């Protein structure tokens, strides 16, 4: 079984000597003694996309060929979406435990849908996501933990929920981002975390395989190549992702807000186009489940909340997080999407690339090691 995104930061903590930190990935078998580690998350760089990326990314091509670095396969958590994955990375916990169970979620007891990307301070991040992060654990163990992020991420609820405890190092759009990460890594021992959304943005807006996506792949490769070139002798660089993705053609989209069979009995819609959480009016859940199962036959797997939980897809679900999951959970299969034009911004329906579901193309992610390895190869 592949390791999980939840295992990455505990393994880094183990490399940095934090007592009791579990190295379930065997990172110590890949990396020689280090006193500093950079972790870079490339948003949208799924495992299945690596061969296609390699055409425009010489460093990634060299990794795939075994010429440099070391490559492992991991899984992200479900739903395969950025907010869920970032908090799973930061806490080392499954979504059912940390509670960030999707791109958007109903705030229980209200008719409000919380968009985790736009989330600021309501609800308070320590209440919505109360678990400790590995950045906090590193700091408490006396190990420096720094996060290099664009300045507009600072102050967001998602940043606090995922990276709480880290020293935030904001950057501006005009800054040399890879240089800033490299400078932070050289400045002091410990963990330095970096993030880039370039590839994922191009996939959403222009599609996987588009010229814009390939240009983004080239830029990501330049970023990683510069970091590898500037690694100090006692440093390692770990590169991973939060999810993969796929393109959804126009004829494989259903707009729930244009079909009365799909709106009947539904009080509130959350999630995203590949995974929908349907919160139903009182007593309507069985009818909604039956209607959606019939209409979406061959398009999606439709389950009650209880059925979805028994699959273990969310991990163990803390009772406080149960109401955040819809009464009905709809997970797309194949290259399909369920739009909700009456509930979401119009830009969502215009996207080409999607993720969030449980397919291998969406959930399998890489973990690449660079640095002083056990066999002496960087």
UniProtKB/TrEMBL annotation:
InterPro entries: Alkaline_phosphatase_core_sf, Phosphodiest/P_Trfase
Coiled coil region boundaries: none
Pfam families in the cross-refs: Phosphodiest
Superkingdom as given in the UniProt entry: Bacteria
GO molecular function: hydrolase activity
PANTHER family according to UniProt: BIS(5'-ADENOSYL)-TRIPHOSPHATASE, ECTONUCLEOTIDE PYROPHOSPHATASE/PHOSPHODIESTERASE
Record-given protein name: Type I phosphodiesterase / nucleotide pyrophosphatase
Organism whose genome encodes this protein: Mycobacterium basiliense
């Amino acid at each position: 079984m592949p390791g999980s995104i939840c295992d990455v930061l505990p393994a880094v903590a183990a490399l940095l000597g934090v007592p009791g930190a579990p190295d379930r990935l065997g990172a110590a078998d890949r990396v020689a003694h280090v006193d500093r580690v950079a972790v870079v998350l490339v948003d949208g760089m799924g495992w299945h996309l690596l061969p296609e990326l390699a055409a425009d990314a010489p460093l990634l091509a060299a990794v795939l060929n075994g010429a440099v670095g070391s490559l492992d396969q991991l899984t992200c958590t479900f739903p395969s979406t950025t907010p869920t994955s970032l908090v799973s990375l930061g806490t080392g916990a499954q979504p059912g435990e940390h509670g960030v169970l999707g791109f958007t979620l109903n705030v229980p007891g209200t008719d409000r849908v919380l968009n985790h990307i736009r989330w600021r301070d309501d609800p308070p991040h320590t209440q919505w996501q109360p678990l400790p992060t590995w950045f906090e654990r590193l700091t408490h163990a006396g190990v420096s933990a720094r996060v290099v992020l664009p300045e507009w991420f600072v102050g967001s609820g998602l940043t606090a929920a995922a990276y709480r405890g880290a020293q935030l190092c904001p950057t501006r759009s005009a800054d040399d981002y890879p240089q800033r990460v490299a400078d932070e890594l050289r400045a002091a021992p410990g963990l330095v975390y970096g993030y880039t959304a370039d590839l994922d943005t191009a996939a959403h807006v222009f599609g996987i395989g588009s010229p814009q996506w390939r240009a983004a792949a080239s830029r990501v490769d330049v970023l990683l190549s510069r970091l590898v070139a500037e690694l100090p002798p006692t440093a390692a660089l770990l590169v991973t992702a939060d999810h993969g993705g796929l393109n959804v053609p126009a004829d494989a989209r259903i707009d729930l807000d244009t079909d009365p069979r799909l709106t009947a009995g539904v009080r509130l819609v959350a999630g995203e186009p590949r995974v929908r959480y349907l919160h139903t009016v009182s007593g309507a859940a069985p009818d909604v489940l039956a209607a959606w199962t019939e209409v979406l036959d061959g398009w999606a797997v439709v389950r009650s909340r209880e059925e979805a939980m028994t699959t273990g897809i969310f991990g163990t679900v803390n009772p406080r997080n149960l109401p955040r999951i819809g009464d009905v959970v709809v997970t797309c299969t194949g290259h399909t999407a369920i739009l909700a034009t009456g509930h979401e911004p119009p830009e969502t329906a215009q996207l080409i690339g999607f993720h969030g579901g449980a397919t291998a193309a969406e959930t399998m992610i890489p973990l690449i090691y660079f640095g002083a390895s056990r066999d002496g190869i960087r």
